Amino acid sequence: MEATAPLRIGVAGIGTVGSALVHLIERHGNDLAVRSGRAITITGVSARDRSKDRGVDLSAMTWFDQATELAADPGNDVFVELIGGADGTAKASVEAAIAAGKHVVTANKALLAAHGNELARQAEAAGVSLNFEAAAAGGIPIIKTLREALAGNTVSRLYGILNGTCNYILTRMEQEGIGFEECLADAQRLGYAEADPSFDVGGQDAAHKLALLTAIAFGTEVDGDSMYVEGISSISPADFEAADELGYRIRLLGVACRTDSGIEQRVHPTMIPKSSAIANVTSVTNAVAVEADSVGELLLCGPGAGGEATASSVISDIADIARGDRVGTFGRPASDLEPYRRAAMRAHEGGYYIRLAVYDRPGAFAAIAGRMAELGISLESIVQRHRAPRAAAPGQLVPVEPAPVILITYDTHEADIRTALDTIKADGHIADAPQMIRIEQLG
Amino acid sequence: MEATAPLRIGVAGIGTVGSALVHLIERHGNDLAVRSGRAITITGVSARDRSKDRGVDLSAMTWFDQATELAADPGNDVFVELIGGADGTAKASVEAAIAAGKHVVTANKALLAAHGNELARQAEAAGVSLNFEAAAAGGIPIIKTLREALAGNTVSRLYGILNGTCNYILTRMEQEGIGFEECLADAQRLGYAEADPSFDVGGQDAAHKLALLTAIAFGTEVDGDSMYVEGISSISPADFEAADELGYRIRLLGVACRTDSGIEQRVHPTMIPKSSAIANVTSVTNAVAVEADSVGELLLCGPGAGGEATASSVISDIADIARGDRVGTFGRPASDLEPYRRAAMRAHEGGYYIRLAVYDRPGAFAAIAGRMAELGISLESIVQRHRAPRAAAPGQLVPVEPAPVILITYDTHEADIRTALDTIKADGHIADAPQMIRIEQLG
Predict the structure, then answer these.
(1) In Å, how far is B417's CA from the nearest CA of chain A?
(2) What class, spelled out in words, does domain A142-304+340-345 have in CATH?
(3) pLDDT digits (tens, 9 = 90+) for B51-92
(4) Would an 8 Å CB–CB cutoff place B366 in contact with chain A?
(5) CB of B336 less than 8 A from some CB of A
(6) Is the ipTM of this complex over 0.90?
(7) Closest partner residue to A327 among B25, B309, B323, by Cβ?
(8) Which of A296, A388, B220, B252 is most enclosed, with most CB atoms within 10 A?
(9) Cα dihedral sign, A297-A255-B298-B250
(10) How confident is the model at residue A406 (pLDDT cuts 50, 70, 90)?
(11) CATH pick for B142-303 out of 3.40.50.150, 1.20.1530.10, 3.40.50.80, 3.30.360.10
(12) Closest B-chain CA to A288
C-alpha cells in the first residue's frame, strides 16, 4: 500500500503560478490520481504574507512562515519552489528540501542558471529528482523533450523565442510601425512587462532559460554567465522597415550551437527569414526549435508565461515524481556533464544586417565599401535610400544630411564586422552609431 | 548490479526504421547508456529475408526467422515491433512478448488503432510497458507530451497534419497550381508516396494516428473505425485558387474535439486561415496542435516519417524503459479509459466552403441561395466569376456553360449543408458534384 499513498506536496511561493497550481490540483485532482497512480495533495504552503487574499482556499494546508521550514518538514514528500531569485530563500529552501531527502520541483531559472550544477549534484547524491519544466518556456514541454524524447540524438543547434515580453514588443513594432518605448509602455499597461523591464528587454531572462536548455541539449554544465547577451532596446522602426523589404523579421532569439571551439550561446535581436516557421510566432508566444542528427528539426510553440500554463509544467514534473519516473537533472548524471567550453563571440560566423546613417557626400559610400573589402567582408545586398534634397534659399548652404544605407553581408566573422564598423565610424562618414543585427540562417 | 545490466533489445522488422534504429543505437550507444543509466544493446533481430543487404551489420545479433520466436526468446528484455499491419505477425509477436513479460515498443499505428485497448490491458496485466511514440507523427514527441507533459490538463481539441504524403501533395498543388494526379506521381517518384497511395491519400493513415492521439488526449478507448474520413483526391487547383483569395490554405487535418454528444473525430481536407501557425507547415512535415484548459495551446512540428526520425522516437521509448519510467499505454490504466462515444458527423458544426459549377442562366443563383436560406444557412461570402461569353457564329446557339460560384457559410450543421447540396443538385442548376470543404476555426 506504500506505493499508493498520496504524494504530499509543499508549495513555497503562492503568487500567480502558486495560486494557479493550487487551483489546478484541485480541478484535476481525480484525473491526476488516475494518471499518476496515486493521489496528489498539497499539504503545506509558505509565502511572505499570510493575510493576503490569493483567491484560493489554503485552509486545509499547513502554513509555514519560513520556506526553509516547509522544505524540511516531514509532512510533505515534494518541495515546489516558486519563490524566485538566484539566491536567498529560494536556494536555501531547495537545499534544505534536498537535504531532507525530498524531490524538488522549481520554476526558478535564475536559481538554476546560477547554481544548477551544484544543486544537480546535491539532488543526485540524495537520490531525489530536481525537475524544472516550468523554468524555461512556460507551458512548453521543452525540458521533457530534451531530457527524454531526444535521448537518441546529438543536438547541433537549438534556438528559440524565450521571452514573451520581447516578442510582444517586437511583434507590435513590426505590425504597427511604432517605436520601442511606446510598445514597452503598452506591454507594461497590459501586464506583459514588469515595472522594471530591464531583465526582460535586456535579454537576461532569455539567457537564463537558454543556459538551462543548452546544458541538457549539449550535455554540458550550466553556465548562465558565459554568453553574449544583447537586448532589444536599440531596435527601431527603420530596422523593421528594412527587414520587411529584405524578407526578414526581427525576433529576440536565444541560440546555442556546437562549433569547433566550443558551444556558442547567445541572446540577441536576430534577423530571421519570413518563411521560417519561428518567424510566424507572434505576441507573447514562445517557441523552441531543436536541430539534431536523428530527428532532424523539431519546433515546439506555446505559452511562455501565465499562471496556469506555467503551473501545467509544474504538475507535469510532479506527476513524473508521483509515477516514480527519474531522470537526471540535466538529462544525465551531473558528473557526466562536460565542462562548458564557451565559443568566443568574436569567432561567431554569420550574415549581418548593418544600418548606417551615411553623410550624403561624394566618396562616403565608396570609403565604407572599401573598409568592408579590406576585411574581406562580402556584401550580399546594399540598399541606399537617397533623401529628397532640401530646397535651399538662394545663397544658403544646404546642410549635408545623413541618408540611411542598409548592408547585408555574406557569412563573416563577428570580429571582422566589429573592426570594420569601428573603422567606418572613426572615418567620420556616418552619423550616429551603426546598427548591427545578426542574421540567423534557418531551414 | 541487476539494475545496471544492459537492456537487451529484440527488433522485429529490419526495414527503413529498423536499420536506422540499429545505426542509431550504435552511433549513440555511449551517450544513451549515460542518459538511461544502463547500456542498451540489440541482441536479437528478425525479418523476412535474411540474405537481404540492409547496410547494417547484424552479425553480432541472434537471427530469428519468426518474429514470434524473437518475442518469446529469453535473450531480450524489450521487444521492438517494426513489422507493420493490424494483424498477423505483428499482433501475434506483440502478444507473445507481453505474455513473456517483456516491454514492447512499437511503431505500428494500424495495430494499435485496431487492437490498442486489448493490448493495453494485456500489457497492464503483465506489468510491462507498451510504448508507441513512433506510431504517430514520426519524430514528434506528441505521445510523450500527451501522456506525461499534459497530465494536468483537460484537452478540448487536438488537430494535426498527420500524413506527410498528403501535406506534400497539397503544398505543391498550392505553390505550383498543378493538379492532384501530377503531384501524386511526383511524390511517388521522390519516395514520399507508396506505389499504392490509397491508404495515405484516402486519409486512413492519418485516421489511425488520430485515433491513438484521441485516446490519450480525451481518456477514451481507442476507436480507429468510428470516425469520418475523407481523402484529398477531390481537391483541385480551383479550390486552391479560391482558398488563396479568401485567406485560406487547404490541408488534410485530423481533428478530435469534445462536443456535447461525444468526441468528434474526423480526417478531411480542411480550409485553415493563412495566419494560423499550422498553415505554414509545408511539405512532408507533420504538426500537432493541442488546446487544453491549463496550458492553452501547444503546437509541435517535425518530421512525420523517415527512418532516423522515426527511430529517434523508438529510442525515446526504449530509454524510458531503461530508466524504469512507466506510464499507462494511453496515459492511464486501461480500465480507466472511458468507452469512446462518437459524436455524429452530421451534428458537426462549422463553416463550409462550397464550390459549385452553376449553369449561367437566369434564376440559377437565386434558386441556390434560396435553398440555403430554407435550411437557415447564412452565407459569409459569395464569389461568382463570370466566364467571358463565347462568341457565337450568326444563327448559332451559345451553349449554357457552368460558371464557378464559391460560397463560404457561417457556422452550420453538417446535416443541413448536406441536405442543401443534395437539393441543389436535384434542382439541376449545377453541373458536376458540388465541392465541399470544411473550414476549421483556428486561434
Answers:
(1) 34
(2) alpha beta
(3) 888 889 999 999 999 999 999 999 999 999 999 999 999 999
(4) no
(5) yes
(6) yes
(7) B323
(8) B252
(9) negative
(10) very high
(11) 3.30.360.10
(12) B300
